Amino acid sequence: MSPSRRMLTDERMEQIISLLLLVGVVMAGVIVFAGGIYYLVHHGADVPDYRVFRGEPVELRSLSGILGAAISLQGRGIIQLGLLLLIITPVARVAFSLLGFARQRDRVYVIATLIVLGVLVHNLTSGFR
Amino acid sequence: MNILAMSGLIWLGSLLAGLLGSLTGLGGGVVIVPLLTLGFGVDIRYAIGASLVSVIATSSGAAVAYVREGFTNIRVGMLLEIATTLGASLGAVLATVVSPNAIAVIFGVVLLSSVYPSGRPRPARESDDRPDPLATRLRLDSSYPTAEGARAYHVHGVPLGFAFMAVAGALSGLLGIGSGAMKVLAMDQAMRLPFKVSTTTSNFMIGVTAAASAGIYLSKGYIDPGLAMPTMLGVLVGSLAGARILAGAETRVLRVVFGVVILALGLEMIYNGLTGRL
User: Fold this and answer.
1) Residue A104 pLDDT > 90
2) What's the rounded Cα separation, in Å, for the pair B165 and B53?
3) How far is CA B227 from the centre of its chain?
4) B209 near B172, Cβ under 8 Å?
5) What Cα–Cα distance (Å) separates residue B11 from each residue in A16, B59, B79, B102, B134?
6) Is B224:B49 a contact under the CB 8 Å cutoff?
7) Among A59, A66, A102, B226, which residue has the fewest nearby CB atoms (within 10 Å)?
8) Between A32, A89, A113, which is nearest B78 by CB?
């Protein structure tokens, strides 16, 4: 492959990655904001208690639980869905890079990306079992 | 104080932290945990969770512009992310077993060290810029845009940079920060990348590193939506605004002031950790 063609592919990858990050952050921000308004309208007058760590309830720790809480229109569930989207955005970016390196037949970077993706997916799903 | 007032105050504080962090280049993430623990009496584990989420937001938000400008070295980033994500996984698991007071002390030490002026560009040493065999085999060498067109550079010291990154990842996972300063140090000093390439690639990696520990934090119940919401929205708005007014702004005085604030917060974190008040 000529150097100029590799440059072009890297450049296109960069543009798509940039767009991917933008969409992810904007969507996450909008969902967190909307959920936050909803949460404050319903619970704004409550007294907060973050002094003692109890950990989040099970439904706000797992993918299925968060989806369920968001669909049943709980403010905290909607915010958590936005945060989950935010956390997944870099993961999607890595997954896309995998595609890019595979198309360039760059075996070393396909393997590197697979390792990173493996760690990310493993950690994200560790709580869902 | 009710939830509405607390959320509003946290939003404002986070906005200021994000603004100052991006204006001074010291990063806003490092002051979020002290803000929440010392300022609002939040348990350090909830504070770390909220901080980590805002770190992902600012990293991804800023990377949108950087990646497109062509400074970011995606290969260097991907290779070193192996080290940072493995380090971050270890750090996040450690965070769940180490006592909160010990975390506070480590946090304070990292705060104190983050003020050390590492943000100084390394003087150019063009004469010894020979290609490095390992970096060449890994096809890490690249170029970056300048006013006179694209300028090529060589990458060096890959194993040392890799080791630095593992430590940076572990600190990120343990403390819920981006460890941008340490990532820049590894790339700028150990791997001798151009300064602008180091800072943008570091920022690019912060999101992936933080996502690795965020998965573990989420499953352990560290990420509280009510707390993360105002923090993340505040830091995101503040850091994006800071990046906009950065061009042409005189930040030297601001750097000193913010540096003193970070020093004071670091000492207070260490003191509270040692006396068991957190």
Assistant:
1) no
2) 20
3) 20
4) yes
5) 31, 18, 35, 27, 46
6) yes
7) A102
8) A113
B210–A contact, CB cutoff 8 A: yes
Instruction: Dump pLDDT digits (tens) for A7-51.
Output: 456 778 888 888 999 999 999 999 999 999 999 999 999 998 898
Q: Round to whole Å and give the CA distance between B40 and B147.
A: 47
How many C-beta atoms surround the C-beta of residue B247 within 10 A?
Answer: 6
Neighbours of B147 (CB within 10 A): 5
Strands (E), B68-183: 142-146, 149-153
The structure's pTM equals 0.90
Report the alpha-carbon distance of residue B152 to residue B144 in Å, rounded: 7
Chain A residues with CB inside 8 Å of B3's CB? 40, 43-48
* Nearest Cα residue to B53 out of B237, B173, B185, B214: B214
Does A116 contact B208 at a Cβ distance shorter than 8 Å?
yes
φ and ψ at residue A33, rounded to 5 degrees:
-65, -50
Q: For the segment B212-254, what is each residue's pLDDT rounded down to a tens digit?
A: 999 999 989 999 999 999 999 999 999 888 877 766 566 678 8
**DSSP code, position B98:** S
Cβ–Cβ < 8 Å for A93, B208: yes
Q: List, in order, residues 6 or more apart from B237 with CB less than 8 Å away.
A: B15, B18
Separation between Cα atoms, residue A46 and residue B1, nearest integer Å: 9
> In chain A, where are the structural domains located?
3-125
